[in-house]
Design brief:
Chain A: Residues 37-229 form the CobW/HypB/UreG nucleotide-binding domain. The complex is a heterodimer. Chain A has seven helices and 15 strands. By secondary structure, chain A is of the alpha/beta class. In chain B, strands 3, 4, 6 and 7 form a four-stranded antiparallel β-sheet that branches. A three-stranded antiparallel β-sheet of chain B has the order 5-14-13, with no helix packed on it. The chains are: A alpha/beta, B alpha+beta.
Chain lengths: 369, 364
């Protein structure tokens, strides 16, 4: 499979949702006013993603959650596929399985993702969900899916809430370093961590404490912006995977053991993927424009001012302006958005801009002059 | 999806509304009004919607009888048999399988800069498409079917030794798109006769000498009401406003900023799901150009880039779309009308060249 092809991951999807039986009444049009957060769940092979998802589905949490499990690897084949319906009818939270029928050619010239369109169609039939979790296969690169869903927020009630990566507490260190015989391509593990907003380190009940610490240390280097939680058999506080607002809220940057001051903080790269935390001074309008143009070259042309190649997988930032506004940067792949908040004010001092990706090690500073 | 009051003379500024006209509801049409007073005030105009849905022509049928159409337009099947293209005319790569796989490869997903030779070939294909659109549009009149228009368009294209790009693109069955009244885009030519008072968009794309060109325009059928005239003028004006900002250095994401204010100022909304697109070697390629403001569009315009801008403008506040079960026809969710205009543009050293340019809009 060509890694560079834009994947149509939602070719064949199985949809599970809790509380199916309750939703007997056809939905009201007025109900459609609600926006619905969608979380992408990725993870290393064998890390325990499915267990986590089953836990979310069966736990009595009172939410209507749709879990979409992608059983087949992403493909650029865009033919419509429709699959049957089966009803498992369990105890706590009825589990119903439904396959999504996919739209066909009508989505040409449309930026609406076909999978998303099918989910919307289903919600119209079955009523709105409180959350949607979309599982990507162990081989998927979340940073290639996140932009699709993030951009689709502009045309849909479904918006990208965040990306969760499940890491194997026992084998994760080896998988990240790439020195295990696991089937997964080592660089891909790093990319999955790089694109995540939340990392769940699973199987902590059977992993060695020292390994877990080393693993978390490595994760923080590749991605200083992700929140890391330890879990056992996928048990965790749902607040860690739902309502992340990872693409709208002010990002948190963990650079605990570095006093960055005015210099960039680099981390060694792991299979080409690394991160850099850059200080951002309080910006005048001119400098703000230069920052944005530099960012555009980085994200849209994949190159640094000196011409060297770069591939930014995720970027986040927060800084202040001379007018006293707070600016928040969110970006994934070539998409980015800078939002200004005049009300918030800025409490002085340098802001931060984090780049995660390939080749970011060469970035020393933001050219603001 | 907020439903807003659909009255064009709303007394309260078209706020979000949940009250529905009961007659419409019985007919399966969704109509929203903010208050009983507003509803009463617009009754004289509104009640026309309750008249019998477009009767399907003698010998034709509606293939989706249980579908809840948002307006009064109905498909009139059967579609005519697939039209032939003479063997000597070169086909685009997707015609054999119906699948444009090359469009998902990196080359098509990177904004290309055309050299002089490519630009010239594109220029020729665009001029040709404009000719075909104009001559097809000259046949618009009450009583002609959209299928007859398709036959005319198809004949004109193959006569010029070009291929009608839509034909079998993702298995699209006809040679161009005819979008009537509440259809936003991708209407499939069928046996329905045009009726005086309709508006119709014709969208022509052709492939000639290795280049795709793409343009569309909305036309009146006989005499149309003032509201439809306003809609058509607003759509054209919004496209012109976007073209005016196109030059090297303009951000793709700013195109929507030029379009949306024009629509809003005229009580209309901008459709979000469908975007302008690169068109040259590929029918649809990078950049994707949203028509609404505040978007995350990628790219900066540079000389040599070629793409379309094609705003779809709906009367009222609802920008959303729904699809007929034919998987192509997109309509407004409230049955109100939608209009569109499209040109293929080439960015030049200091501005933009409208490759598909034609005569200015004149509705009088």
């Amino acid at each position: 499979m060509d890694d560079d092809e834009v994947p149509y991951v939602c070719q064949r999807l199985r949809l599970y949702y809790s509380d199916l039986i309750e939703a007997a009444a056809p939905p009201d049009v007025a109900q459609d006013n609600k926006t619905v957060p969608l979380t992408l769940i990725c993870g290393f092979l064998g890390a325990g993603k499915s267990t986590l998802l089953k836990y979310i589905l069966t736990e009595r949490h009172g939410y209507r959650i749709a879990v979409i499990m992608n059983e087949f690897s992403d493909t650029a084949d865009i033919e419509a596929k429709s699959i049957g319906l089966s009803d498992s009818g369990g105890a706590a939270g009825e589990l119903a399985e439904e396959y999504l029928e996919l739209a066909n050619g009508c989505l040409c010239c449309s930026i609406k993702d076909p999978g998303l369109a099918s989910i919307e169609k289903l919600m119209k039939k079955k009523g709105s969900f409180d959350y949607i979790l979309l599982e990507t296969t162990g081989l998927a690169d979340p940073s290639s899916l996140a932009p699709v869903f993030w951009q689709n927020s502009e045309v849909s009630d479904i918006y990208l809430d965040g990306v969760v990566c499940v890491v194997d507490g026992v084998f994760g260190l080896q998988q990240l370093r790439g020195d295990s015989s696991s089937a997964e391509e080592p660089g891909l593990s790093c990319r999955q961590v790089a694109g995540a907003d939340v990392v769940l380190v699973n199987k902590t009940d059977i992993a060695k404490a020292a390994d877990l610490d080393a693993l978390e240390g490595l994760i923080a280097k590749v991605n200083p912006t992700a929140a890391v939680h330890r879990t056992t058999r996928g048990h965790l506080d749902l607040a860690h995977v739902l309502n992340l607002a990872a693409y709208t809220s002010r990002p948190h940057v963990h650079d605990h053991d570095h006093d960055h001051g005015d210099a960039a903080t680099h981390h060694d790269d792991l299979h080409g993927v690394s991160s850099v935390i850059l200080p951002v001074p309080i910006l005048s309008p001119d400098r703000a424009e230069r920052l944005e143009r530099w960012l555009q070259t980085l994200l849209w042309e994949n190159k640094l001012p000196d011409g060297s190649a770069v591939e930014v997988l995720r970027c986040k930032g927060v800084w202040g302006t001379v007018e006293g506004a707070t600016c928040v940067l969110q970006g994934v792949r070539s998409l980015y958005e800078i939002t200004r908040d005049e009300q918030r004010g800025w409490d002085g001092g340098n802001g931060k801009l984090v780049l995660i990706g390939r080749g970011v090690g060469a970035v020393e500073c933001i050219p603001l002059e | 999806m907020t439903q807003t009051c659909q009255s064009s003379s709303c007394l309260n500024g078209n706020p979000a509304s949940t009250l529905q006209c009961p007659k419409c509801d019985k007919l399966g049409i969704k109509s929203y009004f903010c208050t009983q007073e507003c509803f009463k005030a617009s009754w004289a105009v509104h009640k026309a919607v309750h008249s019998k849905p477009d009767t399907v022509e003698e010998g034709t049928y509606n293939p989706f009888p249980s579908y809840r159409f948002s307006g009064t337009l109905r498909p009139a099947y059967p579609l005519s048999p697939r039209r032939q293209v003479p063997a000597h005319i070169p086909r685009p790569d997707y015609v054999a399988t119906g699948r444009p796989t090359s469009e998902s490869k990196p080359h098509a997903r990177t904004i290309q800069v055309l050299d002089e030779e490519q630009q010239q070939r594109l220029r020729v294909a665009c001029k040709m498409a404009r000719e075909v659109l104009d001559l097809t549009a000259a046949h618009i009149r009450p009583g002609i079917t959209t299928d007859e228009l398709d036959a005319i368009c198809h004949a004109a294209i193959i006569e010029r030794n070009a291929y009608p790009s839509p034909l079998n693109y993702r298995e699209y069955p006809k040679s161009f798109c005819t979008s009537v009244n509440e259809v936003i885009c991708h209407g499939i030519p069928d046996q329905r006769k045009l009726v005086e008072g309709d508006i119709i968009n014709l969208d022509v794309s052709l492939y000639y000498n290795g280049m795709h060109s793409d343009l569309n325009a909305t036309y009146p059928v006989g005499k149309i009401d003032e509201e439809s005239k306003k809609l058509i003028r607003t759509s054209r004006a919004s496209l012109d406003a976007a073209i005016a900002i196109c030059k090297p250095g303009t951000l793709v994401r700013d195109v929507g900023k030029a379009i949306e204010p024009v629509a809003k100022a005229n009580g209309c909304s901008v459709v979000r799901a469908f975007v302008g697109h690169g068109t040259h070697i590929y029918f649809h390629c990078a950049p994707d150009i949203p028509h609404y403001a505040k978007n995350k569009g990628v790219g900066v315009m540079k000389a040599g880039m070629a793409f379309t801008i094609e705003p779809m403008i709906n009367l009222g506040g609802n920008w959303e779309e729904i699809h007929w079960p034919d998987n192509w026809t997109a309509t407004t969710i409230d049955g109100r009308r939608s209009a569109q205009f499209e040109e293929t543009l080439l960015i030049t050293e200091d501005g933009v060249e409208v490759l598909t340019a034609g005569a200015p809009l004149n509705l009088d």
